[in-house]
Every structure is written in C-alpha cells, then in structure tokens.
Amino acid sequence: MIKAILAVCVLSLSLGLSGMGTATAGILPKDGEAQYELEFWESIKNSTHAEDYEAYLEAYPDGRFAPLARARAARYKDTGPEPAPAPAASVDDMDVYYDVVTKANVRSQPSPRSGRVGELDKGQRVHVTGRVRDKNWYRVELAGGASGFVFGELLREPRKTAPPAPKPTPKPTPTPTPKPKPEAPPAPVVTPPPVSRPTPAAAAPGSKDCDNCPEMVVLQPGSFVMGDDRGDRSERPAHRVSIAHAFAIGKYEVTLGQWNACVEAGSCRAIANAAGLSESSPAKDLSWNDAQQYVRWLSKLTGQNYRLPSEAEWEYAARAGTSSRYWWGDNMQSGKANCKGCGGDWSNEAPADVDAFPANPFGIYGTSGGVWEWVADCWNKSYAGAPKDGSVWTQSDCRENVIRGGSWRNDKTYAHAASRFTYDTGVRYILNGFRVAKSLR
Q1: In the sheet where 216-219 sits, what is the strand order?
Q2: Strand pairing report for 116-120 and 104-107
Q3: Which of 16, 122, 400, 417 is the most buried if burial means most Cβ atoms within 10 Å?
Q4: Is 417:406 a contact under the CB 8 Å cutoff?
Q5: β-pair type (247-250, 216-219)
Q6: What are 334-384's pLDDT values in tens digits?
Q7: What's the average model confidence in pLDDT over 238-242?
C-alpha cells in the first residue's frame, strides 16, 4: 500500500514540477516563500528518518512536497524500531515575545507526533516562556494561561532598534590668547621622496585575542569589483568597491568549540550535536540573531570591536585579490571546496572541519562551501544602489539578512565568490553559520 502511495506521489510531484525548468538544478530561485520551502526539501529529501519529514510537514503542512513527505514519514516510521518512551523535556525558561513566521501548530509536547492544542496565525506575536534543551522547540503561552510547544523554524525574534543617542551639549569655546610670532628659520632644502605605487591588499599573520577566540587575519585597504554580471540577478550589477580601512576577519568559520565557549559563559544557546561533530566543525543551525549574540559576547570578553563582516568585506576577503569565478580560477577544481559534487572528502550528513580544504591567497579558509555565512547586511534583490565604500547596507526593513558562500549540501553553483542568498533574520537553519570580523580603528 505504501509503495502504491509513493508511486502516485512521485508521479504527481514530477508533473507538478514540469513547469519549473531548471529550478532544482544550478542556482535555485531566490525570491519568496517557494524558495525557502525548496531549500528545506533539498536538505532532507535523501533522509531515511521519519522525523525529518515530520519537521517539513510541521513547517509546510500544505507544501508542494507534503504528499511525498507524509508517505515517507509513514514509511520510515513503520519500518524503524519501536521508539522508546520519550523522557520529559528539559526546558530552559525564557520571557520574551517572538513573531510567528507562518501559520503554526501548537503541540502538547515538543514533537510533531504529539497532539495539537492550538494554532498561531502568521504575524501574531506570542509570549515565549522557554526553549527545549537540545531541540529546536519553544514553549509558548496561549490565551487563558495554557501552554504548548512550537517548532523553532516557525518563530522569529522581533528586530530591535536602538534608541537615538542624545545630542551632546556643545562645550563653550575659549577665546585663544594671541602669541607673538617667532622669526621663521631659513627653509631647509628638501629632497622629494621617491614615488611609491600602492600595493595590493595582503594578509598579516593570524592572531587571537583569547584561547577560545577565533583566529583573525588582518586585511589592508584596497578596491575590487564586487558581484558578477554573468551570474544570478542578485549578483548584478558588478560594481567597484573601495575598502578604505584595514580590518580583521576570521581565518576560519566560527567552530563548534568556539561557540560552546560562549554557551558555557551563559551568553549563547546550546547547539544539538546529533551528528557527533568535532570541536573543529563549523557551528551551524544558527540565526542572524544568534550570530549577533556571539559577537556581543566576544566583544565584551576581549574589549575589542567584534562584529559580523559587511557583505563587501566578506567578498573582498573571499576573492583574495582575484577576479575569477572562484579564487583559484573560473572552474571548480576537485578538493578545493566543501560542497556537493565538488570532490575531496564530502558527506551529505555534516560539513567538514573548518581547515579541511585549502586556504585562499589571503590565508582564509572555507569561503566556498562549508556553511552559509551570515553577514551584517540587509537583503536586497540586486546591487542597484549598493554602497561602494564597503559599509553595511541597511536600506531595508532587515527582516531578512544576507548569507554568503554556499554550504556542504549545495553544489558548485553556490560556492563561487559572488554567490549570495537570503534567510529570515530570526530563523535557524542547519546549513547556516558565520565568521566574525573586527574593526581596527
């Protein structure tokens, strides 16, 4: 019976996608809810765990892949061993208000298999009273004082805006006392210095501000052509950007070990590590807001100005003085990047360690593949009107932020230097991580 259902679902799915052209190959459509759903499906479609398909159905109960997801969830649930009774969930208390991303079911327990006790509407603001430890579920308070659990992908932390700083009171300017002018000495004969030509940006040796801090590489000022007129619409128009000041950027993506140092300090949330990743694996399943918590903690710990890089700074570091599609040339080379079908040691289950693939000419690792990396900028659909000085682009409501570089589950069309993508600011996703930057002024 299940095989018959699967056959019908696969046939319906192939007919339904016949008009999508190349949407499932190469660069996926980057606009709208359909893209997020397709990315979610791409990340689980080869899974043999019923929970993955149930998580998809929790987020997209009426999605285009829902019939197939239900069939697979039933198949793997029926063929798997009888699950042991789940222990009582351990919940860390919270007292915040989140926005609902899309219509969400409220469950009696933190599992899509538990009974539904309520429903939240898209855009509704809900009182979050706790987060389930080691799971992406939140406890929420319902009308009348009842409570239930909502899958974390369906909630988003409202964006906070800082109040304007008060204007400083101008100090009275003292009247200067005139001084007698001394007699000018005879002017010395000055030999003009030789004319020097500017040198391209170069990387300084890596350094760390503490034992568990990310290793940083200092990049000197310079200019480069950002974007690619041959690429996706979001990568156009290509435009010259000038980085006026030196800055430091992470030599690697932030690792699980570095993230856990923030967790132990009580400033970051714990990340579930079901795949048994090493301390040198990139931290993942993080939202833009999570990344901001980390850089605030790191700044307080070290007294330095840590932050997310601007999108321009990120691409400047990723290109490393080159103008080709990838930093090594215009074609993918085996063993250069941690991406799907790109050669080298690659696994669909987890990313490689942050130093597993070669560094670019600036000594920076992992800008092609690994995990998608959050940057500071708000999402804009193209570079029309983008700043040309390397600063953060904030001309948007910033409900979505930019991610760069592709991931281990994406193919080579996402791993080139100009590749850019978007994700909701407060939403966590298993492919998303980040690297840090540091202001030097």
Answers
A1: 216-219, 247-250, 437-439, 306-307
A2: antiparallel
A3: 417
A4: no
A5: antiparallel
A6: 999 999 999 877 777 789 999 999 999 999 999 999 999 999 999 999 999
A7: 97
